[in-house]
Amino acid sequence: MSKYDSSDLARLEAMTDAEAIQNALDDADSPPTDAAFWADAELVDPEPKKVPVCIRVRPDILKFFKQRGPGYQTRINQVLEAYVAHQEKRAGRERQGPTFPRLGCD
């Protein structure tokens, strides 16, 4: 069930661009911005997309990660990233990709 009913949608569809702009300007939660507002903004690149892959792992390894709850695939990815960073550091190359927080040990 949608949280908006058909009367809301009909009202929005009937609204002119000028009315929509005026409504936005009147909204105290959404003040207009100008070039000065954005002057010191920092561009943050999104995390690279992950690629689906099928790997075979021992059942005890999978159980270890799954027992810690949702996000086990992300934790596996973090472990692999830490391994790659370590290997590259040993080889004298610093990792150029994104860095993630270290995993906490329970």
Largest sheet, if any? none
Instruction: Pick out the low-confidence regions.
Output: none
- Please state roughly what percent of the residues sit in beta strands, choosing from under 5%, 5-15%, 15-25%, 25-35%, 35-45% or over 45%: under 5%
Overall radius of gyration: 24 Å
User: Count of DSSP E strands?
Assistant: 0
Shape: elongated
Number of helices: 5
Mean pLDDT: 84
**Distance between the first and last residues' Cα:** 41 Å
Derived structural class: mainly alpha
Quick rundown:
This protein has 106 residues and is mainly α. The protein has five helices and no strands.
Describe this structure in words.
This protein has 106 residues and is an all-alpha fold. It has a domain at 6-38. The chain is 47% helix and 0% strand. It is built from five helices and no strands. The longest helix is centred in the last third of the chain and has 19 residues, at 72-90. The mean pLDDT is 84. InterPro entries: BrnA_antitoxin (IPR025528).
